[in-house]
Design a protein that fits this description.
The chain is of the alpha+beta class. The chain has 2 helices and 5 strands. A 5-stranded mixed sheet has the order 1-2-3-4-5.
């Protein structure tokens, strides 16, 4: 698999990662200047089971941290990732709950 970097497509409100010509995404809503609600993760079926979704979520969390953003994990995949990697809860918003959406 060729490694590519995730990009933030602000126009489409999604983080995108291209792997072997296939696009994987984490969709989001900009809640306020400091908060992104991560709503949906989508990985091309041919890439499932290769860790692509986890890599993408990790890059999104790194992006949030580097840009002083907080996230709201509305997406079950992101929520499950956070349960497996609790250290990343440092970028989870304390101002909003998933029930606010």
């Amino acid at each position: 698999m060729n490694e590519n970097h995730m990009k933030n497509n602000k126009h489409r409100q999604q983080f995108e990662l291209e792997t072997d010509g296939k696009l994987s995404i984490v969709a989001y809503q900009q809640v306020d200047d400091e908060t992104l609600a991560l709503t949906h993760t989508e990985v091309d079926p041919s890439l499932e089971g290769h860790g692509v979704g986890s890599k993408l979520v990790e890059e999104v969390l790194q992006y949030a941290e580097q840009n002083d953003l907080k996230i709201v994990p509305l997406c079950p995949f992101v929520d499950a990732y956070l349960k497996r990697h609790p250290a990343w809860n440092r970028v989870v918003s304390t101002a909003y709950n998933t029930s606010d959406f």
